[in-house]
Amino acid sequence: MMREQRSTASAKIVWSGRSCGDGSKIQYTQMRAVDAATGKTLRIQGTPCITRFDPQRVTWSRQRFGKCGSAPLQVPALPTRICSATGGNPGSFISGPTPANPNPASPQQPPAASPAPDGDQQDPNGSSTAAPDLQEAASPSPLPDAADASPSPAPFTRSGLLLPRVPLSAGDSAPSGVQRIEAATPDGVDNTEGLPVEQQVTVGVIDSGVDRTHPDINYAGGQSFTAADANADQDAYGHGTHVAGIIGAKNNGQGVVGVSPGAPVYSLKVLDGQGRGSMSGVIAAVSWVATEGVKQGIRVINLSLATMVDPKSEEYAATVDAVCGVFAQAEAAGVFVAVAAGNYGDALRGYLPAACPSVAAVTAVDETGSAAASFSNFLEVNGATPEDQARIIAAPGTKIRSTISFAKDSTGYRGKGITAGMRPGAPEQPLQWMACVTASCADGN
Fold it and tell me: What are the start and end residues of every segment in region (Disordered) (predicted)?
């Protein structure tokens, strides 16, 4: 695991560490001065500028590197937990210098990946401040939602295969993000009920599970790809159910509506109740979709998780090839892949799967829709190919209100600082809009 700290215009410090304790914490073990432009280790009179943790000098080492689960004294903002790759707050940085290996039997393990607990908003410095729950989420009001107001959308024209529009049910609420992308308008919302099976688009949510008991979710089934929890239809962490509601919360007279109300959601569980998982589990889930999931109608998958790998590291190319190859297989199978761009305020090239050329990476805009969210990762202009520019999507990204698992909140709804984006579905599919979600990270509930 590595973390960079800018020291001067020409040099920076790279902190390296390993997992410790129960595997969720970080112990820093090395700091290295490198050239900011080339990434090469700096030298003084021929000696590399590297300081390492010395187990023979425990006090000396702890003063410089901290203990397991604590940051070095001189850099208290360094993360201390392996928690989330999309968060960007202390305790949530994940890096993966080891090349990902899609073969679970191999002793070489890929980098860890997990999403973050809901409920955080990122500040420009990448730290996290808890966002209060929106009390009106438990008793939402009809469209337009005064508590979640946004300017009325301008008239628009639809084209292609269209879903029928029906009025928003009394007692239901359309969150502002859903209104802003015109998935909910004064003339109603899309209706997926009664569509022929061959026209249904099932969305795979690769996350922490989906609460199948939630009345606002059209649960279509599930598979678990984490040994920590085999129950894909349960969601102790809450995040997967939150994502599922953004995608397809029903127009049923309660709670909220999603981008495509009633869309079938298939749970692909890769994260445990603490929001932790591995990239090997993610790779296994995506591979399953490409071979078996498509047979069950899965045509879209969403991943609000990521892992970081240093673009200047020797392992970068091998890691990208291993991870991105699996996502390319999913694309070849006819599956649209939406992923988190990341919430580090950093170039997304160092984050997987956002850096993969076959996925749509979603960045965030603020509540006004006129500026990028301060925490959102981005595509660097210099060196960006037309293909990369075409696959980056900007979408509503703060205070997204949606469903959540009853294990996480007894009301079943929560308004959180989750970053969400929406984009049109494939033109040959009747589903007019599909949600792609990125998530903030917190180090708590």
Answer: 88-160
Q: Which amino acid is at 362?
A: V
Query: Which pLDDT value is given to residue 67?
Result: 86
How far apart are the C-alpha atoms of 275 and 113, rounded to whole Å? 9
Tokens linked to 286: 């995506």
**77 is written with which tokens?**
């903002």
Angle CA 19–24–30, to nearest 5 = 30
User: Which ranges constitute the DSSP H helices of 374-439?
Assistant: 386-390
What mean pLDDT is predicted for residues 209-227? Answer: 96
Phi first, then psi, for residue 140 (nearest 5°) are: -70, 160
Cα dist from 333 to 287, 295, 337, 357, 358, whole Å:
10, 10, 11, 15, 12
The pLDDT-based confidence of 443 (bands split at 50, 70, 90) is very low
Q: Where are the domains of the chain?
A: 2-80, 135-438
Q: How many CB atoms lie within 10 A of CB 89?
A: 27
Q: Which of 132, 152, 134 is nearest to 143 (CA)?
A: 152
Element (H, E) at 241: helix 239-248
Give the model confidence (pLDDT) of 159-215 as tens digits: 445 778 899 999 999 998 899 888 999 989 988 877 777 778 999 999 999 999 999
Q: Which of 33, 16, 28 is nearest to 62 (CA)?
A: 28
As given in the structure block, the two tokens for residue 40 are 């090469």
Q: Report the candidate in 439, 404, 344 with the shortest Cα–Cα distance to residue 125.
A: 344
The share of the chain scoring above pLDDT 70, in percent, equals 72
Place of tokens 């005064």: 146
Q: Which of the following CATH numbers is that of domain 135-438: 3.40.1440.10, 1.20.1250.20, 3.40.50.200, 3.40.50.10090?
A: 3.40.50.200
CA distances from 195 to 163, 190, 250, 429 (A): 9, 12, 15, 12
**Is 329 in contact with 232 (CB distance < 8 Å)?**
no
Give the three-class secondary structure for 85.
Answer: coil
Report angle CA 409, 362, 371 to the nearest 5 degrees.
95
The pLDDT assigned to 9 comes to 61
**Closest by alpha carbon to 81, among 27, 24, 21, 28?**
24
Q: What angle do CA 265, 266, 268 make, to 5 degrees?
A: 135
